[in-house]
Amino acid sequence: MIRAYKFLMRPTVGQALALGEMLRDHCSLYNGALQERRDAYRHVSKTSIRYGQQSAQLKEIRAFDPERQGRWSFSSQQATLRRLDKAFAAFFRRIKAGETPGYPRFRGVNRFDTVDFPKDGDGCRWDSTPHDPVTRVRFQGVGHVRVHRHRPVVGKVRTVSVKREGKRWYVVLTADQGEPEPLSKTGSVVGIDMGIASFLTTSGGEHVANPRHGRRAAAKLEAAQRALATFPRVRRDKRTANHQRAVEKVARLHGKVRRQRLDHAHKTALGLVREHDFIAHEDLKIRKMSKAPVPKPDPGRPGGFLPNGAAAKAGLNRSIADAGWGVFLAILKGKAESAGREVIAVDPRNTSRRCPECGHTAKENRPTQEKFHCVSCGHTAHADTVGALNVLRAGLVRREAPPA
Q1: Are residues 229 and 291 in the same domain?
Q2: Does one domain contain both 171 and 194?
Q3: Are residue 124 and residue 48 in the same domain, yes or no?
Q4: Potential cystine with 99: which of 29, 94, 178, 249 (Cβ 3.0-4.6 Å)?
């Protein structure tokens, strides 16, 4: 299996400048390749340019501009062109699926934060020994950068990536490992119901509180963003030091909320994986759940619209994003795979409206957000617990079902 590791780098001032220049030059390559594709399609009889054609031009580009493009790894530049090719492939795939995707966009220097190296030893070198307290990673054009390796890397390193987050620099590794040793069996199974009032509720009736990190930081974020909005929109090289500090403050607050959300997701998922052999959860379509409502034109007032609950839906969408269900479920799946546990997603429809005692399904069974009262048999329970119990039963049925 493939495992990813993310470590904080501690570059010197000169190395930090070189890393910034590496991102800038790869961003320029990405935008130039995108412009070439746009121009070829618009002006040369709708000609499509592929990755192979652009990769073949790299040698000439490096020779023409040795100061900006020739100093970096050839493989990392190929990875940047491959990244653009994946963006176009995703764009056309969504069009064929009947969706309305946005065309691949040009990237600003402050929005291009990652450079990939497809192979350890080609333009980069992860230099780590098991008992050496000082770990370094070498990048072509940058040098040997110190790394805060807070845990050992198990397996052979395959790929290396440089990532910038605010003022911090990280190295992201992928290592090829053998099959992990599974945890000992507990004999326990559980279903979980994701929510807003409670982050999740288990089929055993346990509620995990929703920390609402985004809402807690909303006042500070609002003040920081209001202060940032007072500065006029100018070119990046014309911005003042105060403007840059305001930008960094907003980024720092957003980064803190993100780390808090990840920490909560990791700890919650780890607790579930350690205690249960089988975990069933709802197969949530989060993107569809957080869509804005369609406007309703007012037939009696040209140019006007009827109320459609957009304000209330916007508040619900913020709560869904703040809960971070998608991140949690991805982390849960990864931890379960490493621990030899089984995770199954089930259809969430009517899980909180179906009575676990008699099986009667009706909208009236859930009179309030928290209360479940079956109109057929009179069974009463917490609505989220009922939902988790039905999710568990559906997951067990799906596990025992023969493969198609």
Answers
A1: yes
A2: no
A3: yes
A4: 94
